[in-house]
Write a structure and sequence with these properties.
The protein is α/β, with parallel strands linked by helices and about 300 residues long. It contains nine helices and 15 strands. It has a six-stranded mixed sheet. Strand 14 and strand 15 form a beta hairpin.
Length: about 300
């Protein structure tokens, strides 16, 4: 059944002089609050600039004793009954992590992600690498975290594909260019990126940008449907007219023609995209690719 979520990525403006600090980071979040308060947003992702500019390693906060940043995120989540992915230097079990903490609408902390691949400079300053991909269940969906330098490591993207997040929350002091689009497609998930360079954006599971920030509005915002089934057109496309005739406006089949891959969305509370896929015996993208690879390997080995 359809699960509609309003998501927002808060872009971060950084002076090329490098003279901004904690007060400016907090000012920028307060400015974003003023634009988002009371607008029905379900998920807000903040930029790594919040922790990068506002905290030293020695100023790390903890979930047991939230400091100014976690308290600020928490108050926003409570006020708007939404989920926040908040950038913070987090102290846990004697280590300090560059983290995204997920704050639920009730103010609780259902989970957090620690940057798996801190930069060499971060590690020299005392930041400890996280344990890898992690998904947190929230009212805004299954959320995974990705922070800045992480985007360079393919193994992490593959870990996320196996975990099947609904949304990857990307918090970063660099943009990453086409890597953002690649990660969304490889993880089969939406990608909400709050960055400092170029534009912050929302990307769909087919790797297409559906919203971005700009000079006039530094919040990228989109309404997305998490109830989706991703499939290749091969072995499936001939069934699309049958599905459309039966369910009409209760479904949406959205295709990236250059990839030859589609998303089947359920737009009704009556049934899920997976149920429709099962009804028409649609073959999921990963099932098709895996079976194709296995068959090719079998024939390669057997020589037939």
């Amino acid at each position: 059944m359809s699960k509609i979520v309003d998501v927002a990525a808060v872009h971060f403006n950084v002076s090329e002089r490098g003279d901004q600090g904690r007060a400016e980071a907090i000012r920028q979040f307060r400015e974003a609050e003023n634009r988002l308060d009371g607008t029905g947003v379900d998920l807000v992702v903040t930029c790594e600039g919040m922790s990068s500019l506002a905290q030293k390693v020695s100023e790390a906060e903890s979930l047991d004793a939230p400091g100014e940043l976690l308290t600020m995120y928490r108050e926003f989540a409570l006020r708007n009954a939404c989920t926040v992915a908040g950038s913070v230097k987090l102290s846990d079990a004697g280590s300090v992590f560059n983290a995204l903490v997920f704050i639920a609408p009730d103010g609780s902390f259902p989970g957090w992600y620690a940057k798996s691949y801190p930069t060499p400079r971060e590690m020299e300053r005392g930041i400890v690498p996280g344990a890898g991909a992690a998904v947190t269940e929230t009212p805004a969906g299954r959320l995974g975290g990705v922070i800045c330098y992480d985007l360079n490591f393919d193994t992490l993207a593959e870990e996320y594909r196996s975990l099947q997040p609904d949304i990857l929350c990307f918090s970063s002091m660099f943009h990453g260019g086409h890597l953002q689009n690649s990660w969304a497609y490889r993880a089969r998930s939406f990608f909400v990126g709050a960055v400092k360079d170029a534009c912050s954006s929302v990307i769909d599971p087919l790797g297409r940008e559906i919203a971005e920030s700009c000079y006039y509005n530094r919040i990228a915002r989109a309404r997305i449907n998490l109830d989706r089934f991703i499939l290749h057109q091969d072995r499936n496309i001939e069934k699309f007219p049958l599905i459309r005739r039966k369910y009409r406006k209760e479904i949406l089949i959205d295709t990236n023609s250059r990839l030859g891959v589609s998303l089947l969305y359920s737009c009704t509370p009556e049934r899920t995209a997976r149920e429709i896929a099962d009804e028409f015996e649609l073959v999921g993208l990963d099932s098709l690719l895996n079976s194709s690879a296995e068959e090719a390997d079998r024939k390669r080995i057997s020589g037939n």
